[in-house]
Design brief:
Length: 399
């Protein structure tokens, strides 16, 4: 409402006679301070972009579209009669299944999805169609492996296009697949229709890459599921180090970070695996660096949230997860590769008050980056479903 009335007011001002000269500075001052306030409220305080859907971070007041809402019939699964048995393509789904490791997000999404009320067996009710192949399983399948991935997907998609009437209605725009491992790109090499039309729910969401489209595809957060419940997340006094980073120096950016800050007394960087528990550093630092490696994504962002550490994102062209729902400026520090030499200056220029806001928001955002076997409101599963829901009607079925 505020931006609308401001516009209105400006237009009226122009339509009428110009205001007396002495009024101008006052007007300008008013408008400027209003704009600054507006900017500040958008940049800093609005945790959610879509304040109508997420008026505040109060799950009891707002719910994501759930049962009985239009989102309830999103999917229909493909029983692939001619291809390999569906169980071979799918990850196993059972109640106590707890995916782990770096690519757990793909398995979690599917496991929870198939148990959820979003799935329908009636294609006429479906808003979206899911291609349930698991890149993570296929790459370890001895009969397929990395070298056979792209042919497998080509056959699979050709089969879908030939044998089901749904693909051709939209050219695949209402179909989606999920992949957390970047090998998904190799797998899609021979299926241009999937790359350019389908919704790709992927962890390697770099808008620098030609086969990822930020407005069409969905950035899936890479999350290494942690199970211990850390204590004292909010306490600042235990966070004695300014910043922390550890990881293999497999990219120019990582090398630059380690080389620049290796001997610093307040920033702790370590090239390679840590010998001590990561949780100690994640709980003992104010800021935790996420530095692009081979890909823009790593599980470090999810780890930072889990341990209450404010993430510093150093990954140019990373389409950050849930960016169209949550405001990353309100709980992280996003810098570019050219900022590496100024890292300490940038972090020290953030006031303690501002840090408290960032850190309090990290604790709020934490639940959006966690998977649960039985999904909880606003958790990673519902966030991804919400992203799909936002994209569901981009292309309408014409017949
Ligand atoms: C939602 O749907 C279920 C059955 O489909 C019904 O039992 C329930 O009363 C509905 N709830 C609301 C709030 O409409
Ligand atoms: C969809 O279109 C393709 C290309 O025109 C065609 O080969 C295929 O048979 C169509 N699928 C169905 C189910 O009609
Ligand atoms: C850090 O210390 C080592 C050993 O003294 C030295 O070789 C290296 O050049 C130092 N790095 C920086 C960035 O000062």
């Amino acid at each position: 409402m505020a931006p609308l009335s401001l516009t209105q007011w400006c237009i009226n001002l122009r339509r009428r006679k110009p205001p007396p000269l002495s009024m101008l500075p006052i007007c300008l001052a008013c408008v400027t301070s209003f704009l600054i306030l507006l900017y500040m409220s958008y940049t800093f305080d609005n945790f959610f972009h879509l304040t109508k859907i997420f008026p505040a971070d109060t799950p009891s007041l707002v719910k994501l579209p759930k049962q009985n809402d239009s989102i309830s019939d999103v999917l229909v699964t493909f029983e692939d009669q001619n291809g390999p048995p569906i169980t071979r393509i799918l990850d196993k789904t059972h109640d106590h299944y707890k995916p782990g490791g770096n690519y757990a997000s793909e398995a979690y999404l599917k496991n929870v999805l198939f148990k959820s009320h979003f799935v329908t067996n009636d294609p006429s009710e479906a808003d979206l169609f899911f291609l349930p192949f698991s890149i993570a399983s296929l790459r370890h399948d001895r009969k397929i492996g990395v070298s056979g991935l792209s042919d497998f997907i080509l056959n699979y998609v050709t089969n879908i296009i030939q044998n089901y009437p749904y693909w051709n209605r939209t050219g695949g725009a209402d179909h989606f697949y999920a992949a957390c491992h970047s090998i998904g790109r190799v797998a899609m090499e021979k299926v241009d229709q999937v790359k350019s039309n389908a919704i790709q729910v992927v962890c390697s969401s770099s808008y620098f890459l030609t086969n990822y489209f930020a407005h069409k595809d969905v950035s899936l957060p890479q999350i290494w599921p942690r199970h211990e419940e850390p204590l004292d997340l909010a306490s600042h006094s235990k966070r004695k180090k300014l910043a922390f980073y550890a990881g293999t120096a497999n990219s120019p950016l990582r090398k630059a970070v380690v080389q620049t800050w290796e001997n610093d007394s307040s920033i702790f960087v370590h090239g390679g695996r840590l010998k001590t528990p990561y949780s100690e550093q994640l709980l003992g630092s104010k800021y935790c660096l996420h530095v692009k490696g081979f890909e823009v994504n790593t599980a470090r962002v999810g780890d930072a949230f889990y341990y209450g550490c404010v993430p510093v994102i150093l990954a140019d062209y990373y389409d950050l997860p849930f960016m169209d729902i949550i405001n990353w400026k309100s709980f992280s520090v996003v810098i570019t590769s050219s900022d590496i030499p100024n890292l300490k200056k940038i972090l020290l220029s953030i006031s303690p008050k501002r840090y408290s806001v960032l850190q309090a928001n990290v604790l709020k955002v934490r639940k959006h980056f966690q998977w649960n076997n039985s999904p909880l409101d606003f958790d990673a599963f519902y966030m991804v479903m919400y992203e799909l829901w936002l994209r569901r009607s981009t292309i309408r079925v014409m017949y």
